[in-house]
Amino acid sequence: MYKATDLAKRDIINIADGAKLGSATDMHFDLNSGRVTAIVVAPSRKMGVFRAGAQNVVIPWEKVVKFGRDAVLVDIGPMT
At residue 50, does pLDDT exceed 70? Predict the structure, then answer.
């Protein structure tokens, strides 16, 4: 079992292009079922500053592929 704080400590990696998306900052829940429906990822830092115009990415829970010790793998297609 994972805690939300455990999720926040892991990098979120997109397996479609190998990009480090950032870290989880929030979660969306279905209030009727109590299940997680998505994770919200803050943009990763690039050279010490946030990328201009970068916004949070909401990743549907179905796109989470694997939880690892250091990272969470997701498959959201190439980010352009």
Answer: no
